[in-house]
Amino acid sequence: MTELSPMLEGEMSHDQVTRFLAERKYTSRNLWREVKSVVRQIEQEQGYLIFDESVQQKAWTDENEVVCWHYDPCKKGGRSRASAFECAV
Fold this sequence. Notes:
Elements: H1 4-7, H2 14-23, H3 28-42, E1 50-57, E2 67-72, E3 77-88
Antiparallel strand pairs: 1-3, 2-3
């Protein structure tokens, strides 16, 4: 997350956003309904809000709170992978 807290004058922190996203599973539509009013308050014509979820293969890493098993249809089986979710403003 980049510069969100200063843009919101400290009203919302990176940790608050992380906890909010971890509360439950959101569809794109449901997440937009939840955050639209906040986004509209801070949006700027020249600005962007970017969300990125990446999954990286971690073949030799044990499962933990960051690394878990994902089904890989190309390999026809489970693979150990780390998920990373990023938000940039």
